[in-house]
């Protein structure tokens, strides 16, 4: 299937590892010119090298903290007319809400809700004027299946999805869409870090938690980062222009609800 991404310009956040790296490589393979964003420049250069090896294309690199306005401005200086924006980034560690004070909540909302919204704000007007735009937020299954220990993520990421849903309906007539991908258990660096956190919280071994999570999933395995990247690439394509304000679970069937 031709996704129509040849020559499109994409900003991929969180591109230094895991799902973000896989998304960047996949979009570049489909012909997009990618600008890679994360805080770790060394890891970003590794992603850029991988893009060059896999696709023969170069990739721009911007080391930035998305919670900082000046850093967001630098990203759009490097890619001033993006056709595609992939909002993706880390989250807050699991814990007990009784241990979180106001500073924890503000940090979570700033990282997982306000920073992506600011990136959207900087992108949408130009996309609308040019008549093409694809925005994809990588959030979490927790927005549909909240987990108590992930309260900060439940709240902030749900806020991003709710905001995006309202805005998406204002933009789709201009061929600008906003959709969300909700990963389940994915074999990524972030997932390994999460399981280590759960191990410290519970006193159980890392290996036992990892194996238990795989066994509990209907697919009996963790997902691959490339499976997330494929879903994102379709949402970014010209084929997906009639899909907006949608939240796609990529979770091996773990969510048990109908809607």
UniProtKB/TrEMBL annotation:
Belongs to the short-chain dehydrogenases/reductases (SDR) family. This is SDR family oxidoreductase. Gene3D superfamilies: NAD(P)-binding Rossmann-like Domain. InterPro entries: NAD(P)-bd_dom_sf (IPR036291), SDR (IPR050259), SDR_fam (IPR002347). It comes from Gluconacetobacter aggeris.
